[in-house]
Design brief:
By secondary structure, the chain is mainly alpha-helical. It is about 65% helix and about 0% strand. The protein has one domain: Four Helix Bundle (Hemerythrin (Met), subunit A), CATH 1.20.120. It has helices at about 10-20, 30-55, 65-75, 75-95, 105-125. The protein is elongated and about 50 Å long.
């Protein structure tokens, strides 16, 4: 089995899009939460990539610390805030409770778009070639 870390954020986003685009009887009832897990992993991998390049010590901290620190390092503070909100929504969707509905197709598509925007900001920030913080 290939560890999840061997997949790029784009691979994970594509896998989530595939779950949304091609309903399958084998994934009936589980695909929304599976897509949410893939999306959360894509966001986490994106942040890990960012922190390893910018401030490696943050890559090993909790996601809460990483997301709290993000506005300081991204030029677009809205993208940083949206990343934190999206991660919280995805985390909630990934924890199954019998009394809660799975995320809807619309919610999942909105989260995909938001993660793509965050990825664009991360790529933009990394392309500025600023030296890592010691």
């Amino acid at each position: 089995m290939i560890p999840v870390t061997d997949y790029t954020p784009e691979d994970l986003l594509d896998a989530a899009r595939t779950l949304l685009a091609r309903p399958d009887a084998r994934t009936s009832g589980v695909w929304p939460r599976a897509a949410a897990h893939l999306l959360r992993q894509a966001l986490e991998e994106s942040l890990d990539e960012f922190w390893r390049a910018r401030l490696p010590v943050l890559a090993s901290t909790s996601m809460r610390v990483q997301l709290t620190s993000l506005p300081t390092f991204l030029a677009n503070s809205d993208a940083a805030a949206n990343a934190a909100y999206t991660w919280a929504c995805l985390s909630n969707a990934c924890h199954h409770h019998p009394y809660e509905l799975a995320p809807s197709d619309t919610e999942l598509r909105a989260w995909i778009e938001e993660i793509e925007r965050v990825r664009e900001e991360i790529v933009r920030a990394l392309s500025r070639r600023e030296p890592p913080v010691p």
